[in-house]
Amino acid sequence: MGCASCANKKRGSTPKGCKNNGTCSTGGCDKLEVFDWLSNMSLPEGSRHFDVLEIRFKNGRKSFYRNPTKVCFQAGDTVVVMAKPGHDVGVVTLTGELVKVQMKRKKITVKNHELPKIIRRAMNEDLDMWKKARAREYESMHEARKMAIRLKLEMKISDVEFQADNTKAIFYYTASGRIDFRELIKVMAEQFRIRIEMRQIGARQESGRLGGIGSCGRELCCATWLTDFRSVSTSSARYQQLSLNPQKLAGQCGKLKCCLNYELDMYLEAYKDFPSANTKLETKQGAAVHQKTDIFKKQMWFWLSEERGGGKLVQLHLDRVKEIIALNKSGKKPQNLDKFIHLEPEITEPQYENVVGQDELTRFDGKFSKSQRKKRGNKNKRRKPNSPKSNMKNLTVSKQKGTNSNEKPSPQHKTNAKRQNKNK
């Protein structure tokens, strides 16, 4: 439980960012946060604040609690709430009149449900106990998986949620059928010394709790903002003219991707202008059968199976198709579909022209003036006074002046001779 800045830490070190371990009020730690657009508005005179708050727990699990205390809580405050049994610690996500909208959306009424109560604001002792309980979740999940394998149960334990007072633990699992886990609960209760509750979830809920990166390169929608899981069918892929490839259409949960429903309404609205796919265009040369449709360009393709000289695939605009259908309803048949073909002008891409000449490797060759060439030549002729070539020139000049052969050469002359041999 923590945003990106809080979660980037090593074991045993203090977290980065706000350093609150997911209890900050910035809203970044809440992956299903709700923007309170009524927070800056004052209530009318004589009205009281709504005494029900929305509390968030691990992995976006939210519930509504009544506030019998006179303490005014704000979004991001950690509170101690009632649980069955004991108590739990959660974070306040919504307050005020916006909670009524959320309760109405989830069909929860105060009269029909006895809402649990908020006990107090969380103290340091409560937060320390909460952190200790959260620290047990990772190891206990792996231990529970080993126990399920020993008992040969066909189930997958995906997540564990410990209560803040360390009196209860909820194990979330996925299974294809019904599982008899009574023996597993006995073994887990003896091992962890805690009350065990098993809760079965679906594959989509499992991916939402665990999270991950989708094929689009972004974090999964079910782990960030998606709150309800609607059924996705293969007809949504057919309407969008997608290939029915299960490897491309399935998400990390193994089911069809939820994003197939995002643009489905737009496709269904666009298909209302198109005739049915079973419509045939009657001509004197035969009946044209529909093959495919491009709703963006408003183009339809028809196959003339009985045309003289063999079959032919004809591309027609939507307006032309409606015109032919109107002729067929009036009892008329066109000679063929050639005169209804609308040929779009071909867009020729402009040829690449190198106007500036910056892509040539030899663009700097032969573009120096005579004065620049002379300067470059003079620079090459200049040598340092301590260079080997300049020292050799001094030796040759001294020999021409007639130095005695009996005189011993200086150490500088020896080094110059060695350098000359190396250069040769």
Task: Describe the structure in your own words.
It is a single chain. The protein is of the alpha+beta class and 424 residues long. It is built from 14 helices and twelve strands. It folds into four domains: 128 residues, no CATH class; 66 residues, 2-Layer Sandwich (GMP Synthetase, Chain A, domain 3); 64 residues, no CATH class; 61 residues, no CATH class. It is 30% helix and 17% strand. Strands 2-1-4-3-5 form a five-stranded antiparallel sheet. Strand 7, helix 5 and strand 8 form a beta-alpha-beta unit. Helix 4 crosses helix 5 and helix 13 crosses helix 14. The protein starts with a helix and ends with a helix.
End-to-end distance, in Å? 74 Å
**Which descriptor suits the 3D outline?**
extended
Indicate the low-confidence ranges by residue numbers.
7-17, 22-28, 401-405
Q: How many helix segments?
A: 14
Whole-angstrom Rg? 40 Å
Give a quick account of the main beta sheet: strands, pairing sense, barrel closure.
Answer: 5 strands, antiparallel
Strand order of the largest sheet: 2-1-4-3-5
Domains (count): 4
Q: Hey, roughly how much beta strand do the residues contain?
A: 15-25%
Strand count: 12
Summarize the helix and strand pattern as letters: HEEEEHEHHEEHEHHHHHEEEEHHHH
Q: What percent of residues adopt helix (DSSP H or I)?
A: 25-40%
> Could you tell me the mean pLDDT?
78
Structural classification: alpha+beta
Feature tags:
424 residues, 4 domains, five-stranded antiparallel β-sheet, 17% strand, single chain, four-stranded antiparallel β-sheet, alpha+beta, GMP Synthetase, Chain A, domain 3, 12 strands
